[in-house]
Each structure stands twice: as structure tokens, then as C-alpha cells.
Amino acid sequence: MGKDLKEKDAQEIGRPGLESAMNEKPEIIKSTYKGSGKLKGKVALITGGDSGIGRAIAVHYAKEGADIAIAYLNERKDAEETADMIEKEGQNCIKISGDLKDFTYCQDLIETVIKTYGKIDILVNNAATQYVEEEFSAISIEHLEETFRTNILSMIYLTQQAYQYMEKGARIINTTSVTGYKGHNELIDYASTKGAITSFTRSLSAQLAPKGILVNGVAPGPIWTPLIPATMTGIEDFGKNTPLGRCGQPSEVAPAYVYLAAEDSSYMTGQILHINGGIVVGG
């Protein structure tokens, strides 16, 4: 990581994290990335779309011609910056703030997208939270429930509402994690939710396949996003234990979401793409 990264950032950047407050900003899109209209005319809803991986997905989708809706908790400045980036690509963006743990918000979110754009072609379930805890017995009920409600239960709530408006060829893309495959000794509850997301992806894909709706996922490894300095210490070593010896950037993950949203992946469902710096996992 860069020399500006300090452990104090974990206290200074509030949960779930502000990209605008980070000392070392993530790379959102590579200067060499050229859109080719892969998603022209599509409408995508991205949760956690204000920053990090979600922002990168939104900008890449806009680069490919999609109109965007981003759902975010309360990070208004980040959301506005993301919307500006999308609009600079010539695409529309709406920003909807709220708590995905609230089922009513999930309903309102989908209704807003439908009222604004008239359809939803791509749902990216990306929002998540985590709490680092060295001792298993110290995981609080409050944090346990928040992690599960944010990471997997809200994903199910939102998908239930969204898929009713989806037609043949639509895509649902879920963000899981390398921790869901290899575990993490200090993120036991978080890793458990990510394993559940993988099972949810596989199971839902089987049910929706006859409808022609494709359901896949991406399992990022250590990626530099606002959630990292907001929840972890020792971040100067973040990602160094991967074969590539560094953490990844959102710009290196987002193209996988483009592939899963585009016609290129028309014969793929129930699968997980692993963008993790070379960590070999099963499944």
C-alpha cells in the first residue's frame, strides 16, 4: 500500500466507509478501459453503488451504455461523486438512500427504479458490512444480526422484489467473497454470510433458469475499498499474502461484472468468478 496509509484511518473513516475520506483513493476505472456498448439500453441497480467496488461497477456499466440506479446508506458525498462520474459518460443516474435491512426500503427502492426507468435489467447485490473480532465468543448478537441482515437477508428481500419485473435475459449478480470459500479467522460471521451468498446464487439460478434470468456471482479477494480502513487495522499489509503480493483495486474487479451483465455470458448461470490475486479455492 502507499505510504499515506495509516492504521488511524480505521478510526477516522466511519462505517460503512467514505471513499472521499480515504488517504489513498481506490482506482475506479483504468484509463485504458474502452466501452463498446455491451449494455446499451440496459438499466442496472447496484447496491453499495456509492463507492469501492459498487462505484467501479456503476462507472463501467455507464461506460458500456447502461443507465444506473445506486442504493446507498448515508454516504451522500460519495453517491454524488459517483453520479457525476456516470453522467460524464452520458448516462442517467438516480441515487436512493436508505437501509437495505428495512424490507419497506427494499420495496420502495425497486418501485423507484421502475417508476424512473420503466424496467430493471441488471441487479447487482453488492452492499455488505463486516466486524473484525479476534475471539469467536466475543462476537456480539448485535453485530452478528447486523452482518447477516445486511449481507444476505437484505439481498434476498431485494431480489424477491426485483425479479418480478425482470424479463428473459435479465441478470442478477451477487458479490460474495474469497472468505466464503477459504474462511477467515477474524471474520467468522462475515465469511459465513458470504458462503450463504454463494449457495443463494446457485439455488436461485436453478429456479430462475427456466425464465431465462441468469444468476451469477463474483468472489473478490482483498480489494482496496472504503470498508477496509473503516473496519480493519494493520492495513499497510492488506493483500500482501496473495500470490500477487498486493491488494486489488475496484478497477480490476468491475470488468467481471460487465462480463456477467453482458450477452457474452449468455450460457453461464449459477457460477462464481474469482478475482482474488491468485488465491486458489475450490468451487
From TrEMBL:
SUPFAM superfamilies from the UniProt entry:
NAD(P)-binding Rossmann-fold domains (SSF51735)
Instruction: Please provide, alphabetically and separated by semicolons, the GO molecular function terms listed in this UniProt record.
Output: oxidoreductase activity, acting on CH-OH group of donors
Biased composition, class Basic and acidic residues, residue ranges:
1-12
Is Kinase found in the keyword set?
no
UniProt xrefs under Gene3D superfamilies: NAD(P)-binding Rossmann-like Domain
- State a single Pfam family of this protein: adh_short_C2
Respond yes or no to whether keyword Disulfide bond is given for this record.
Answer: no
Instruction: Determine the domain of life of the protein's source.
Output: Bacteria
Instruction: Write out the entry's keywords from A to Z.
Output: Oxidoreductase
- Secretion signal, residue range per the UniProt entry: none
Disordered: where is this region?
A: 1-26
InterPro entries documented for this protein: NAD(P)-bd_dom_sf, Sc_DH/Rdtase_CS, SDR_fam
So what family is this one in?
Answer: Belongs to the short-chain dehydrogenases/reductases (SDR) family.
Q: By what name is this protein known?
A: NAD(P)-dependent dehydrogenase, short-chain alcohol dehydrogenase family
Which organism is this protein's natural source?
Answer: Cellulophaga baltica
